[in-house]
Amino acid sequence: MELLQYLMSYEALRAIWWLFLGVLLIGFAVMEGFDLGVATLLPFVARSDEERRVLINTVGPTWEGNQVWLILGGGAIFAAYPLVYSAAFSGLFVALILTLFALILRPVGFSYRSKLPDARWRSVWDWALFVGAFVPSVVFGVAFGNLLQGVPFSFDDSLRVSYAGNFFGLLNPFGLLAGLVSLSMMVLQGAVFLQLKTTGEIRARAQRWVGHAALALCATFAAAGVWVATGIEGYRMVSFAGTEAASNPVTKEVVREAGAWLANFAAYPVLWLIPVFAFVGALGAWRLTAAGRAGLAFIASSTALACVVLTAGVAMFPFLMPSSLEPSHSLTMWDATSSLLTLRWMFWMVLLFLPLIIAYTSWVYRVMRGPVTVADVRERSSSLY
């Protein structure tokens, strides 16, 4: 009973929702990651129209369900962290709209690509699917890169947010490097997934891309880590109202200082295992691919993606959206949440619906298991994408 009372406290629920948000981000990276990765690899792995249809139909039955993770993530931020939602959607509006338009290309491309047998028609939609995967993969990483550097926003006395940056300011060198980290993650996950869902030459080409993507992920992730450690000032809270206080982001004191993003790792050295496992997972996926262990390779690549996300989350903890304009207006898990009642209701809703989503997703993948071949496309041409 005492445990339940503590779990329903403001402090505990704020921590729980930080963890829930991390789970949703990891779920998105792992599940939506191979959808985006497969579409990004479409022009490079498939050599003919039938092979491109094979790639499209490897994710055709499940891509819509995988987008649930993105919707849940957006909904969780809106409901649990309204100040983060307002600041992000105000400051990053152009980037988010660009991502939305790119994502809209995917369902249209899936639906219309094979409506006509014309080669030019299909080529246009193939590139639309590529753009619809490539752009979000990069933009998501760019967004995280800018979070680590701080976003130029502030609040007035009425907690109305103002943003002093622009879209092109997001495309700074470190932001673009983070975008390459994200792109490498998606390509790795997509290439590993194709091993599970294809055969023959397509599978062999996907295996080669696993090595390219694994090395790219390790190189860009290592470069980003060195840059964070030596060239980017982190954020540290000097004082704040407390873990149980009402949400008000302008009542604390925050300073920027070199090496602050490594403070949590320095305080708890065991946390260094998280980035280490990111490298181990990426390289393990490559070696397991070479050994023909596609299932284990998928687990390894998923581990790499999860650890990259966790590394960023642990480094920034407890910050959610630091402000480069007014560091003391930065948003943290302790002062940017909804009310206690809202977090309690949402907690029970998650306990009810998240297992159902996971169970349904597991059932779908069980039913749809097995490879897609060129012969399948020829035999069921009218019923497949």
Task: Give the gist of this structure.
The chain has 385 residues and is mostly helical. It is built from 16 helices and 6 strands. The protein has helices at 2-7, 10-45, 49-59, 63-66, 68-80, 82-91, 93-112, 119-149, 167-170, 173-197, 200-231, 263-267, 273-290, 294-316, 340-367, 374-379, and strands at 153-155, 161-163, 233-239, 253-258, 319-321, 331-332.
**How far apart, in Å, are the first and last alpha carbons?**
53 Å
SSE pattern, N- to C-terminal:
HHHHHHHHEEHHHEEHHHEEHH
**How do the strands of the widest beta sheet line up side by side?**
1-2
Low-confidence stretches: none
User: How many domains, as an integer?
Assistant: 1
Q: How many helices?
A: 16
Residue share in helix: over 70%
Report strand %: 5-15%
Shape: globular
Mean pLDDT across the residues is 91
Q: Structural class per helix/strand content? A: mainly alpha
What descriptors fit this protein?
mainly alpha, two-stranded antiparallel sheet, 16 helices, 6 strands
